[in-house]
Queue: 2 jobs
Job 1
Amino acid sequence: MTFARVMIFSLFVLLAFTGFANILPQVQGDPPAEEEINTGSLDMAGMIALGERLFTGKGTCTLCHNNLGRAPDLLMDDLSQTLPSRLVDARYEGVAKGKNGAGAIEEYLLESMREPSKFVVAGYGKKGTNDTVSPMPVVNKAPVSLSDIEMNAITAFLQNKAGFDPTVPLPSAGEAPAADASDDGDEEDGPATDAVAAIEKFGCSTCHDLEGSEADLGPKLNGIGKRMDDAAIAKSILDPNAQIAEGFEADLMPQDFGEQMRVSELNLIVDYLKKLPE
Amino acid sequence: MKLARPVYILLLLAVVVALFPDLAQAAGEAGEKLAGAPQPTRADYPHFAGMSSRDIVWGVAQMHLFLAAFVLAVPLFSIATEFMGKITGDQRYDNMAHEFMKITMSAYSLTALFGGSLALALFLLYPHLMGYLMKVFRGQMLIYALLFLLESVTLYIYFYSWNAMRYGNRKWFHMSIGLVLNTVGLTLMFIANAWATFMMSPSGVDPATGAVIGTVWEATRNPLWNPVNLHRFVANIAYGGAIVGAYAAYMFLSEKDPEVKAHYDWMGYTSNFIAIAGFLPLPFAGYWLMAEIYAYSQQMGITAMGGILAWLFIIQAILIGTIMLAANYYLWCGLMRTENGQKYSKYVKYIMLVIVGGFLVWVTPHSLILTTEEIRQLGGTHHKFLGPLGIMPAKNTAVNLMLVFTFLSFQMFYRSSRIPTVKWARAGNMLIIALYVTGIVNIVFAGLYGYITPTVYKVGASVPQVISTMSIIIFSVIIDIFMLRGAKTTTVHWGRMSDRSQYALFVLPVAFTWLMGLMGYIRSSLRTHWHVYTIMKDKSPEAYIPTIGEAGNTITIITLSFMAVMVFVFWLSRLGATRQETPS
C-alpha cells in the first residue's frame, strides 16, 4: 500500500515538472544547415546578403556581438567610425597598421576572424589577460568552420554597413563554397515539422496516392490504421520488402529510409498514415 | 627451481605491460601514421529496430548514473556517520551507518547491470565514437574495469565485516576498509568524468584532425574535468542523502511500532540534513563549472545561459525551489518534536515568505512567453517591473537568501532542544543576529550593484554574495558550538511527526533525480551537433538538441522508472528484515 501511495505521489510531482517543461517555448536545436552557394552567379549584392545571413546564422556572431556587452555590438555600432578607429589604435599591430580605406578594413576584418587575439578591443579581452587574449573563436576552425568565401561575405556585409564599397573578391565558378572538407554533403535542411512536409520531403506521394497525387505505383494506404498498428506501419517504411502488398513488386520502395529519416519524421508519417480515412 | 634469464625478462615485460598499458599501446602504434578522429556519415550509424539510438543510450545512461551516484555517495557519508558513532560512543550512529550500507548493497547489482547495458548500447549503436574514445584513453578503460572489481570487493568486505569489526581497534580497521572503498569509488567517478568532459572540451589531441598526440593524462585533465568532478562529488552527497531520506520516510510510513518509527524519524532527519548540507555548496560548484565553460568556449557558455538552453534554467529554478520548500517544510514540521519548538515556530511564516519570495524571483523569466496581442499591450516582451527580476543579479540574491534562511530553519530546530548556559549567551545571540543582518544587507547590496555593472562582471558580483552566505553559515556554526557547550538539553520526541511531513522527504529525491536528468541533458546538449566538440561531428539522425518538452517527457519516464526501482529496493529491504513467526 505504501509502495502504491509513494509511486502515485511521485507521479503527480513528476507530472507537474513535465507539464511545466511542455508549456515553455519549444525550440529544437538543429545542426547548422549548409547553405547552397552558387559561386558562379554570386554578385556583390548577393555577397552582402549572404554575409548578413552568415553573421546571424552559421557564423553565430550575434551570440556575442549584441547589446549585452560581451563583444562590440557590430549591428548597432556606427561602423564608419569604429572600424577606422581600430586601425589607428596605439595597441594595434596587425596587417592593416598604418593603412586606411576600404582595403585596410577588409584586411583588418579578415585578420580578426582568423586571429581574434591579434587585436582585442579594450574591455573585451578574456578576464585577467589585460585585453591581450580574445574570447572569440577562430572562425575558419571548428566549431564555426567558415570557408574563405563565407568570411569574405561577412567582410562585405560589414564593409557595406560601414559605408564602404566592398573590396572582397567575388568567388569564381569552380571555387568550393564549404570549409569543412570532412563534410560529405549529407547535411539536410533540418527535419520536417509536419506530416505533409515529411511526405513531400521523402517523396511518398510519387508512388502512393497521398495528398491528391493519385499515384498508383505503390498500394493505396487509405484505412491502413485499421489494418496495422503503429509499429507495423513504421516497420513497413523502414523495411519495405518485409511484406509486399498483393499485386506490387519488391524493391520498388527505397530501402534506406531508416538512414534518411529522423525519428520525429517517421513518427509524423506514421501518425498521418494511420489517420487516413477508408 | 632456477628460471632462465629470458623468462625473467618476459615476466618483467608482462608486469610492465600490465602496469603501463599506455606504454605497450604506444610501442605498438609507434610506427603507425597518426590517424584523426573518425568522421562517420549518417549511413555508418547502426540502428536498432527503428528505435531511437539516442533514447536508448539516454535512458540506460541516466539510470546507471542515478544508481551510481547513489552507490558512490552513500559510503561517503556512511563512513562519516560510522566515525561519529566511534567518537561519541553512540551505537545509534553505527546502526544507522550500517543500515545506509544495506540499501546500497541492494542497489549495487542494479548499478552494475545498467553499467554493462550502457557499455553494450554505446559500443553497438555508436561504434565509431567508442572506437575513438578507446584510442584516446587506451589502457585507462582497462584500469576502470579493474577498479570496478576492486570496488565490488571492498564494498562487500566493508558491509559484511561490519559486525565482526564493531569495537575497539577493529573498528578503525573497518573504517580503513571504508576509506579504501571511497577512494576507489571516487577514482571510478573521476575516470568516467574524464571521458564525458573530454567530449565537451577535448585535449591531448590535434585540434584540427583529432589525432591522438598527447598522453592519456593530458586527455584526462581537460579544461572541464575538475569543475565537473567537484560538482558531481558535492551533488552525489546531496543526492545520496535525499534517497536515504526517502527510504527512512518509506519505513516510517510502513512501520507501526513507535520505537521503530522513532528510529526512522531520526534517520529521516539526519538524511535530510546530509542532503541539504550537500546541497548548500552546490550552486557555488555550479558557478565554477559555468565560469570554466565560459573560459573554455564563450560560445558554449552562451549556448547554455543565453541561447537555446536558457529556458531550462527556469525549470531548474522550479526544481531547486521545490527542493528548498520541501526541505524547509520538513524542518518546520520537525519543530513539533521538541518542547521549545513552539517558541521558534512563530518565525516560520517569515522564513516562508523569504523562501517563497526568492522562489518567485528565481522563476521569473527575463523575456515572457506572450501572444502578439499581449506583446502589443505590454509594449514589449519585458515587463516594466518584473523584467529586472529576470536577470542574474536578482536570481543570485534570491538563491543566496534562500540558502541563508534554509540554514536558519536548521539552526532553529537544533536550538529548540538546547538552552545555552554560558554567561555570554545573550552576547553570543546578538553576535549571531548581527552576522545574519550584515550578511543579508551585503547580499542585497551586491545584488543591486550587479544591475549597474557590465554583463561580463555580473557573475563576479555574485562572489561577495557567496562569501556572505558562507560566512553566516560557518561563523554561526562556530559560535553555536562554543555557546551550546554544556547546554541544558530537552527531550526530542523522535517519531512525533505527521505522515504528511514524510512526503516532503519523497519530494526531495524526485526533484533531485529530475534535476540531475535535466542537468545531464544540458551538459550533453552543450556539444550541439558534435560527439567530441570541434573534433568529431555527430552525423546521426538525432544530431539535434531536443525541445524542452521532449527532454522533459523523457526525463520523467526515466525518473519514474528509477523511483519504481528504488521503492522496490526499499520494499525488498523491509522484506529482508521480516521474519515469519514460528508456528505454535
Note: Chain B has a mean pLDDT of 88.
Job 2
Amino acid sequence: MEGSDSVGQSGSDQPESPRRRQLDRLGREEAFYQFVNNLSNEDYRLMRDNNLLGTPGEATEDELFSRLQQIKDSPQQQNNTPNAENGEDPVEPPESFEDPASGDSLLDWLNTVRRTGNTTRTGHRGNQSWRAVSHTNPNSGDFRFSLEISVNRDLAELLILLLLLKGSSLEGQDVVANPPQVPMETEVVEESVVEELAVIVEPEPEVEEVVSQEILEPPSSPASLLAQRPLSPPRRGLRRPRSHSPEPRRTRARTARSRSPFNLDQLDSLSNQRHVHSSLGPSAATSNISVPQVEGSSRTRQHVLPRQGTTDGDVQPSRAAAESAPEVQNVTSQEGEAAVGDGGSTGRRPPTIMLDLQVRRVRPGEYRQRDSIASRTRSRSQNSNNTFLYESERGGFRRTFSRSERAGVRTYVSTIRIPIRRISDAGLGEATSMALQSMIRQIMTGFGELGYLMDSDSDSLDSNRGANTPADLADVLNNPGTTPAAAPTADVDDEPPVVAGVRARTAEIDVDEGLAAGPPASGGRARPRPPVSLEEPSSLPFLRLAHFFLLNDDDEDQPQGLTKEQIDNLSMRNFGESDALKTCSVCITEYAEGNKLRKLPCSHEYHVHCIDRWLSENSTCPICRRAVLVSANRESVV
Amino acid sequence: MQRASRLKRELQMLSSEPPPGITCWQTEERIDDLRAQIVGGTETPYEGGVFTLEINVPERYPFEPPKIRFLTPIYHPNIDNSGRICHDALKLPPKGAWKPSLNISTVLTSIQLLMAEPNPDDPLMADISSEFKYNKQLFEEKARKWTQEHAVQKNKVTARVSSSTLASDANTQTHPVA
C-alpha cells in the first residue's frame, strides 16, 4: 500500500501545494542523509538490502528508524540471508519456502504463514517498492499471502508484480463455504504499467464448488449455461453454484478453473469449452490438454471469486463473463483424480493444490481499478488476441502455462495443479508432508520457470537476443525434465469454436517470447530445478522477471547494474575532518564528517547511498564512466 | 528522490553563476518543470535568436537525465520539428552518456555547443543534415531565416515598444536574470 499510496500522492499532491510539499521533501531529504550517516555499516546494509531506505525524502526519519527497528526485531524473516534475496524483497515468499524445504518444516512454514494473521509489510529498493500482505481468516483457516512489486522505470511506467499465495487451512476442516477474501491485491494497479505475478497455492476446497456445478452443466446444455451465467450477478455467481450443487464441487477438484485470466473468452468459446470438456475428460489426466481458453476461463473464475467480494462495480461485466465462462476443462483431469478420492466427504478439501503464476503488464490507462484481479480478468477476456497455452502433465502434476497478449497487455499464467491426498485427513502424515513438499517445490519451480525465462532473455541480452526464438521454445519443450506431453496452444479469441486439437497448432509458433515455460519443474518433487537456480543469490527471479519483461517490451538497452555483492565489495570509508572538502557529484552535496563514502576502483568517491543506487542500475563511474565491474572483479581476483 | 535537494542547489547555482548565454528558471513553483533560454552563438546562423527550452526533471533525477526539448523552432540537423534533441548526454547509458555528475547547467551548455556545432553524422533530421554537409550555405541561410522567424519574434514585441530595435538589443532586454 505504501508504495502505491506514495505514488498516488506524489501525483495528486503536487499540483496542489507544490511549494509546501517541496519544503517538506527537502526537510525529509536532509533527515534522510542524517539518518544514513548515523547508521552503522550493518544497519545500512540491512536497510538497503531490504529496500527500507527508499529514496531520500520519501520517508521521515522516524519512519526510517521504525523500519530499521522492525527489521531488526524480525531477523528471522528478513535477515536470515543477509545478502541475497530479501533485499529484493519480492522473493521472500519463495525463500521462506525454501528454508523449510525439508520434511515437515514446510508444514510449519505454511502454518506459520497461516498464523501470522493479518500483516502488511512494505519496502523499497531503488525504484522498486514492494508490499507483502498476509491475511488469515481465523474461522476458515484460509490464508492468503500476496506480494506486489512495483517498479517505476520511467516517470511514466510502473511495473507491478503480484504474488499471491492462497491456501486454506491445512487441517481437515471444511472450508468450503468461505471464499477467501483478500482485500489487498487490488490496490496495486494504479500505475500505468502493471505487471502482476500471482501465485496461488490453494487447496481447492472452498471456492471450486461453484465452478463444478457450472461446469457440469455446460457440457450437456450449452445454451442453458449461457443463459444462466449472465443472469447471475457476478459476485454471487460463485456462491450460487455452490448451493445448487454441493456435490459436484467436491468431486472435481476445482483445480484450475478460477485461476485463469482468460475468462472473458469464455463466452466465445463456450461451445469450444464443451468440446473440450468432453474431450479433455479422458485424456486430460495423463497428457496435456490443449484447451487454452477453457482453462483460462476456469481459472479466472477462481480469481474472480475471491476478489469479487472485494471489488464490485467496475469489474462486473467481466465477472459476468467469467461466470459464464466454463471452467469445465480443468475439472477434467485433476478433478477426476480428486473426485475419486474425496467424493463424498463433505469436509474434505479437494485434493488439489493449485499454483498459479501470473504475470501481466498493463499499460497506463489500461485500467485503473482497484481490484487488479478483476481488471485482469476483464482485460483478459476482452482482448485475448494472442494467447498461447502450454500444458503438460507429469507424475500427477499438471502444469499449464499460457500467455496472451493484446494491445499493451500481456498476461502470463502458469498453473500447476498438484493432487494431494487429503491433506485434511491425517494431519501431517508422511503423505502430507510429501505433498506439501512437492507443492512447494512446484512453487519454487514456478518461480524458477519464470526465472528461466528471464534468464534466457537476459542471456540473450548479453550475448544474443535469440533466446526468444522458436528454437528456444522447442528446447524448453524438449527439456528432458519436462513433461511428456506438452504443446497445446490456442488462440482463443480468434477461433472460438475450434476444438482442442486445432488449437494445439499455434502454441509454439506464437511464443516468440520464449516464455514457453519449461515444464521441467513440474515433475520433480525434490529435484532441484534445472534451468533456473533459485540459489543464485544476486538475481532474484522476480527482479529478473521484471527485467525480462521490460526488456522484452521496449528497449533492450536496459543498463545492467551491479549486484549487491559486487557493490559491497567496493571500498567504503567515513569522511573525516582531515579530508579536503569535496562534493558528491551525484547529489551535489558536500561531504560532511561522518558521511559514508564509497570509493570506486577509479578512485572517485560518492556517498554510499548515492552511488549504490546508481550502481544498482549502471555499471560505470558517474564521473569518468569507467566500468566499475571489471576493476572490481580484478580486485577480487587479486 | 534526491531530486529536490539537488535541484534546489542546481537552481541556486544557475542563478548565481549561469553559464554564458544561458538562463534557466523554475516555472510556477514546480521544481520538476524548468524553462531555459539559450542565446544563439555569435557567428552561428542562430545569432540574434533566443531559444527557449523546456526541461522536465524526472522523478529519478539525477539517476536519469533531464528531458529537454526546444520550444522555439530551430533549424538544426540534430533537433527535430517538435524540438527533440538528439544528444547523447540526454540519454542513459549504454546508449547515451548521461551520468549523475552532469547537471542541468552542463547539459544546457552542451546543447549550446551542439547548436554551434551540429553533428551531421548522427542526424535526427536527415534532410537538414545532408544540407549541412553538402550545401552549407543553404543550410545557414535557412537556419538564419528560421531564427529570424521564430527566435527573434518574441523579442520583436518588446523591441517594438522600445522602437523596433534589432534582435540583439532585444536579447538583452528579454534576458531577465542573465
Note: Chain B has one domain: 3-174.
